[in-house]
Backbone:
């Protein structure tokens, strides 16, 4: 109830102020000049103030990054309305939509993270190049970006923009020591090479941590981290071509750390106070990432400008994972992969008095490989065994045999080797525009025509490496046991083979239309309708060694926005309300022959609705506050799968879709150089799976409080901080079968010394 009261209060604050602002607009024509805003949004491929951006976007500036000591993109997810981490830090959801697909289906993501315009591969988001040292701004777009971004942006997009070179000298260094034996050393700086024409900037960061989980079998940290990030940038503004700018960026990132997610043993008395893991096989990730971007900009004059952005990234990774969670060597996984992504965009922007917009061409090529070798424990499908035997033995005897068999062989040990190469090539033409019909009313519109060609193949070798139950030990049931043994070996045999590479082509037209009304200079509303899209493809069924085709999925998105500024722009209250209608939804479905008998299908349709409200208030030169609230409701309207028998999952909610997310904070600047920040975030309970009963996969709500106090002099500063100040203990995921969980990070305390000019 309190959440609704907060939303109603924020809305009432905005609406109660409309009358005075409207009255002031009558004083003269100048009242309709746009207010000056310091936050500029660039992720929609044009520069526009936050208050002029109708899309729901949460912006984290350099100032806020420093005030809150934000070091990773995951910390921003925690503090943003209608954003949530999923399955530990392995991913995120926007408005309840998991960026890997709502229930794991599909090859592409529903939301993409970009660093300086280059997409970060989905496989390395959990321990990839998204740390925030020397970052200028982070923009999180909630809602489809299919018209502007196209590929993999059905739910939204995250844009990380790093600091550019300048034509004055600067140097900044940072040293940090904190809990979990964590150390971080970083430096950034640069200046002119040729005054007024060529400048550079170099930044580097080295971070080491033992993590907070101890491995009792190997007697070492379970998820230690060793990360190195080096970035170099050049800015060229040739005097011979005064309206031309070129930015060249190279970024190298490498890390050795824990697996995508790290499990804690729940059988230990208080696993929050004593988080341990007993795996004998290392759960680890090694990631090596190189990225190059070339950004060319030319002001053509007459309100026209031309932009060409090319990006290339080369990512390799090796992941190791203990499949049995125990000190015994029963199951493990060893995965290696690589991904090359090349993108090229050519864009013409126009910024006239009444018409502003852009048209562009886009090309993307992605080449991905993934090889794995694992000994895996496939849960013996007792219900499938009973169904197979019922016709010959009768239901009661069949269930008895199945129970005895599962008791003797609860898991089927399989040595499995696989290779999954894929290629995706995308071409698109797109446009986006705003036309002012009057000084107050503007039309919004755009489109994207997207053509994708993807190719995927698969090869697998599977061998049974266990001991089958001896039929002779079961007397008159021996023939039945012999038959089940043969069926089990048949299941393993079915997992052998190769699927010829399948090539599929998809075309999509993605329109966008809306209107915006500026009621006063500081108050505007807009309504936009646009189509979201994720392409189809082919999914490899491991148990059957076959490719199965699935079709694209689409959304229609209806969004109402409010942008308002009050008290001479010291107070902003912004809000977005949305409704999403989703059809042909891609989902991962199981077809009865064990855990790995699964592939992507188009399972039906669903809907999502909710809102975000974000406000910030500069109370004085020494004090400011900010807050946000997000509400999302999700539901599968039609979701029927075949899991040995038909299962109707209609009516269930999306996994990792919190109904409520709240965040807020305050900054206080004392006299004499002292300053402080206090911020908190709340996420309501979430379901972690899509199954009956869904409540079995529920993890509770959590509230995180963070604080920092510091002293700043002319050339140096010192800060003391605490993350999760109240030491909130919470689960991110619980596996009831293995009794292992992914838990939230405990309280972390640290000190940071910075110096520079």
Residues:
């Amino acid at each position: 109830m309190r959440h609704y009261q907060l939303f109603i209060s924020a809305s009432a604050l905005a609406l109660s102020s409309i009358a005075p602002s409207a009255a002031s607009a009558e004083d003269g024509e100048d009242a309709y000049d746009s207010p000056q805003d310091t936050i500029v949004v660039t992720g929609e491929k044009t520069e526009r103030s936050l208050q002029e951006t109708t899309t729901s976007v949460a912006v984290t500036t350099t100032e806020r990054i420093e005030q809150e000591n934000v070091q990773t993109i995951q910390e921003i997810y925690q503090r943003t309305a209608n954003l949530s981490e999923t399955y530990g830090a392995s991913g995120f959801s926007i408005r309840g939509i998991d960026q890997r697909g709502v229930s794991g289906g599909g090859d592409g993501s529903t939301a993409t993270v970009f660093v300086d315009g280059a997409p970060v591969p989905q496989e390395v988001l959990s321990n990839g190049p998204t740390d925030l040292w020397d970052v200028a701004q982070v923009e999180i777009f909630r809602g489809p970006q299919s018209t502007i971004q196209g590929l993999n942006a059905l739910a939204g997009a995250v844009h990380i923009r790093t600091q550019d070179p300048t034509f004055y000298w600067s140097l900044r260094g940072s040293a940090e020591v904190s809990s979990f034996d964590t150390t971080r050393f970083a430096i950034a700086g640069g200046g002119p090479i040729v005054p007024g024409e060529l400048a550079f900037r170099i930044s580097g960061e080295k971070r080491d941590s033992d993590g907070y989980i101890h491995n009792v079998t190997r007697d070492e940290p379970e998820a230690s981290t060793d990360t190195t990030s080096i970035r170099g940038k050049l800015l060229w503004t040739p005097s011979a071509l005064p309206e031309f700018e070129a930015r060249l960026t190279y970024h190298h990132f490498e890390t050795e750390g824990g697996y995508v997610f790290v499990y804690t043993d729940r059988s230990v008395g208080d696993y929050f106070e004593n988080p341990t893991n007993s795996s004998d096989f290392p759960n680890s990730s090694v990631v090596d990432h190189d990225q190059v971007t070339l950004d060319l900009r030319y002001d053509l004059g007459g309100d026209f400008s031309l932009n060409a952005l090319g990006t290339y990234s080369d990512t390799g990774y090796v992941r190791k994972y203990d499949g049995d969670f125990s000190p015994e060597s029963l199951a493990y996984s060893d995965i290696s992969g690589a991904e090359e992504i090349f993108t090229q965009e050519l864009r013409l922007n126009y910024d006239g008095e009444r018409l502003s917009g852009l048209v562009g061409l886009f090309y993307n090529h992605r080449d991905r490989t993934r090889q794995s070798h694992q000994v895996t424990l496939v849960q013996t499908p007792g219900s499938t065994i009973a169904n197979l035997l019922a016709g010959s033995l009768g239901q009661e005897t069949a269930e008895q045999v199945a129970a005895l068999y599962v008791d003797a062989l609860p898991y089927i040990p399989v040595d499995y080797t696989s290779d999954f190469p894929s290629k995706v090539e995308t071409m698109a033409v797109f446009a986006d525009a705003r036309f002012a019909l009057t000084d107050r009313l503007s039309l919004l519109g755009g489109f994207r025509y997207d053509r994708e060609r993807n190719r995927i193949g698969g090869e697998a070798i599977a061998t049974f490496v266990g001991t089958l139950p001896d039929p002779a030990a079961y007397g008159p049931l021996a023939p039945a046991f012999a038959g089940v043994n043969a069926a089990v070996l048949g299941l393993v045999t079915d997992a052998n083979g190769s699927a010829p590479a399948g090539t599929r082509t998809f075309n999509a037209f993605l329109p966008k239309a809306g209107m915006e009304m500026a009621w006063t200079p500081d108050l505007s509303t807009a309504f936009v309708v646009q189509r979201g899209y994720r392409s189809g493809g082919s999914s490899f069924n491991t148990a059957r060694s076959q490719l199965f085709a699935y079709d694209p999925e689409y959304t229609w998105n209806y969004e109402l926005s409010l942008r308002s500024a009050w008290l001479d722009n010291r107070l902003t209250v912004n809000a977005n309300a949305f409704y999403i209608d989703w059809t042909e939804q891609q989902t991962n479905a199981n077809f009865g022959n064990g855990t790995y008998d699964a592939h992507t299908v188009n399972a039906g349709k669903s809907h999502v609705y909710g809102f975000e409200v974000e406000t910030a208030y500069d109370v004085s030169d020494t004090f400011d506050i900010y807050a946000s609230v997000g509400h999302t409701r999700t539901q599968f309207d039609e979701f029927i799968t075949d899991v040995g028998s038909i299962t109707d999952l209609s009516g269930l909610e999306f996994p990792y879709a919190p109904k409520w997310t709240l965040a807020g904070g305050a900054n206080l600047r004392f006299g004499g150089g002292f300053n402080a920040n206090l911020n908190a975030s709340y996420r309501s309970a979430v379901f972690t799976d899509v199954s009956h009963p869904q409540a079995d996969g529920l993890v509770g709500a959590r509230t995180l409080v963070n604080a920092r106090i510091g002293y700043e002099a002319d050339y140096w500063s010192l800060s003391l901080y605490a993350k999760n100040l109240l030491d909130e203990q919470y689960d991110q995921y619980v596996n009831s079968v293995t009794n292992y969980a992914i838990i939230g990070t405990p309280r972390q305390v640290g000190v940071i010394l910075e110096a520079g000019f």
